[in-house]
C-alpha cells in the first residue's frame, strides 16, 4: 500500500477521508458494465463484504449507488413493511436522520432518545418493546458519528431478538474497523459505505440483509431506484447492476478490501484507529482540550472536543490555520454544546496523528495561546 500524495491535505474527517495512493490508482480503468472482469469483481466485493461480518451463509449483500444515506434509506424502505412500525434509538444526528427518512417514506416511527453523550440503554429498550406490541423493527446507529459514541449493539441485538423483533443497524462509520459478527449478533439488515472505515472513495453504499426474511421484503420499497429487492434479483440473475454502475468506485473498493485483508482485517484496522485515537486524545488533552466523551464510551472513529472557553480562541481561525498546515478537521454537530471533531479513520497512522497534534500546538502558539487549560 502506497501512502497518499503529500500534496493533498490529511483529511481528519469521517468521509470523504484520506485514501491510499493505490486505492486512487485502481480507478484508472474504464470497465464496461458487461465486462466479465467487472462482473467477477462485483461478486468478489460482495463476498468480501459479507465475510467481514461472518454473514456469507446467512445474509445477502446488495450494493447501491450513492452516499451512505442512500443505503440507510434503502434499508429502511425495504426492510420495514408499509404497515410496520419502527422504534428508532437516537443519540445524535444520524439517528434523527432515520426518523426523517421514515417521515418521507410515510412509515410509522417512534423514538427512544438519549443524550448525545449517553449510549442507548438496553433495559429501556426492553421496556419500550414490552409496552408496544406494534413495533416490528428497531434501528440503532453503531457508532454515532455526531459525537463519536459507541452504542452497545450486541446487547441491543439480544434484547431485540428476545422480543421477537427485527434489528436494522446503521453501521456506516463502524463497518471495517469495529467488530460485528452475524454469528453472535442477530440482525435483519445493516447499512454500510465504501467510504468510511473501508478506506475507499465515496459514491457507493451497501446493505447486508438476512437471507431468510429477504423474500418477504418484495414490494416494500417506495422508490424504484432504492428498491433493494429488485436490485439484488437483477444482479443475481444477470450478474449486472440494474442501472449504471459506479465502476470506478467499485474498482477502488476492490483494492481497498484487498488492502484491509493485507493489513490483518478488522482487528488490525481497529487497532490502528485505536492508536490514532489514543495519540490524538492524549496529545489534545496535554494542550488543554477536553473531550466530550469519557474514554469508555469513545469509539476510535471520531473524537468530539469541546470548544475551549478562551477569549483568543476562534474556531474559524483555528480551522483555517490547521488547514494551511495540511490538516483538515470537522466542525461540531452537537445540538447543545459548541464543539469540533477530529477523525481517526483513513489511510494514515500514529505518525501522521502526532504531526496533526504538533500542528494544533503550533496553531495555538500563533494564536498566542500557550496552554488552554492553564489560561
Ligand atoms: C456517514 C454516515 C452516514 C451517511 O452519510 P452520507 O453523508 O450520506 O455518506 C450515515 N450514518 C452514519 C452513522 C454516518 O457516519
Number of strands: 14
Report the radius of gyration as a whole number of Å.
21 Å
Q: Helix content range of the residues, please?
A: 25-40%
Question: Structural class, judged by helices and strands?
Answer: alpha/beta
Bound molecule kinds, no repeats: pyridoxal-5'-phosphate
How is the largest sheet built, in terms of strand order? 2-10-9-8-5-3-4
- Average pLDDT confidence is 96
Number of helices: 11
Q: Note the overall shape.
A: globular
Strand residues, percent: 15-25%
Largest sheet, in brief, is: 7 strands, mixed
| N- and C-termini, Cα separation | 43 Å
Spans of 5+ residues with little confidence (pLDDT < 50)? none
Helix-strand string: EHHEHEHEHEEEHEEEHHHEHEEEH
Task: Explain how this protein is built.
Helices cover 38% and strands 16% of the residues. It is of the alpha/beta class and 375 residues long. The strands form four sheets. Strands 2-10-9-8-5-3-4 form a seven-stranded mixed β-sheet, with helices on both faces. Helix 3 (68-79) packs across helix 4 (93-105) and helix 5 (122-131) packs parallel to helix 6. The termini are far apart. Bound molecules: pyridoxal-5'-phosphate.
Brief overview:
38% of the residues lie in helices and 16% in strands. The chain is α/β, with parallel strands linked by helices. The strands form four sheets. The protein has a seven-stranded mixed sheet, with helices on both faces.
Summary keywords:
single chain, 375 residues, alpha/beta, 7-stranded mixed beta sheet, 3-stranded antiparallel beta sheet, 11 helices, 14 strands, 38% helix, binds pyridoxal-5'-phosphate
Amino acid at each position: 500500500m502506497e501512502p497518499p500524495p503529500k500534496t493533498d491535505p490529511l483529511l481528519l474527517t469521517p468521509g470523504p477521508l484520506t485514501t491510499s495512493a493505490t486505492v486512487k490508482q485502481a480507478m484508472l480503468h474504464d470497465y464496461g458494465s458487461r465486462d466479465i472482469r467487472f462482473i467477477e469483481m462485483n461478486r468478489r466485493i460482495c463476498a468480501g463484504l459479507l465475510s467481514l461480518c461472518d454473514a456469507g451463509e446467512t445474509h445477502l449483500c446488495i450494493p447501491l449507488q450513492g452516499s451512505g444515506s442512500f443505503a440507510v434509506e434503502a434499508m429502511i424502505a425495504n426492510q420495514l413493511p408499509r404497515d410496520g412500525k419502527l422504534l428508532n434509538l437516537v443519540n445524535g444526528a444520524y439517528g434523527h436522520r432515520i426518523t426523517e427518512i421514515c417521515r418521507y417514506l410515510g412509515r410509522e416511527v417512534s423514538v427512544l432518545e438519549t443524550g448525545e453523550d449517553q449510549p442507548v440503554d438496553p433495559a429501556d429498550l426492553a421496556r419500550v418493546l414490552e409496552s408496544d406490541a406494534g413495533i416490528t423493527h428497531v434501528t440503532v446507529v453503531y457508532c454515532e458519528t455526531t459525537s463519536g459514541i459507541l452504542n452497545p449493539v450486541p446487547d441491543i441485538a439480544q434484547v431485540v431478538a428476545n422480543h421477537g423483533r427485527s434489528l436494522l443497524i446503521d453501521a456506516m462509520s463502524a463497518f471495517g474497523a469495529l467488530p460485528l459478527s452475524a454469528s453472535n449478533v442477530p440482525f435483519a439488515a445493516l447499512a454500510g459505505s465504501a467510504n468510511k472505515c473501508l478506506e475507499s472513495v465515496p459514491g457507493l453504499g451497501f446493505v447486508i440483509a438476512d437471507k431468510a426474511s429477504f423474500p418477504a421484503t418484495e414490494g416494500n420499497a417506495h422508490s424504484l431506484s432504492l428498491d433493494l429487492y429488485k436490485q439484488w434479483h437483477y444482479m443475481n440473475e444477470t450478474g449486472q447492476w440494474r442501472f449504471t454502475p459506479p465502476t470506478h468506485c467499485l474498482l477502488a473498493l476492490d483494492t481497498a478490501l484487498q488492502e484491509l485483508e493485507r493489513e490483518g482485517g478488522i482487528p488490525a484496522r481497529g487497532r490502528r484507529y485505536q492508536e490514532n485515537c489514543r495519540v490524538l486524545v492524549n496529545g489534545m488533552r496535554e494542550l488543554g482540550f477536553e473531550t466530550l466523551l469519557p474514554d469508555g464510551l469513545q469509539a476510535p472513529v471520531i473524537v468530539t472536543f469541546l470548544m475551549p472557553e478562551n477569549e483568543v480562541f476562534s474556531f474559524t481561525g483555528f480551522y483555517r490555520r490547521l488547514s494551511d498546515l495540511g490538516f483538515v478537521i470537522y466542525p461540531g454537530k452537537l445540538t447543545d454544546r459548541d464543539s469540533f471533531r477530529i477523525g481517526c479513520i483513513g489511510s494514515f497512522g500514529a505518525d501522521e496523528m502526532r504531526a496533526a497534534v504538533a500542528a494544533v500546538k503550533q496553531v495555538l502558539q500563533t494564536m498566542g495561546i500557550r496552554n488552554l487549560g492553564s489560561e
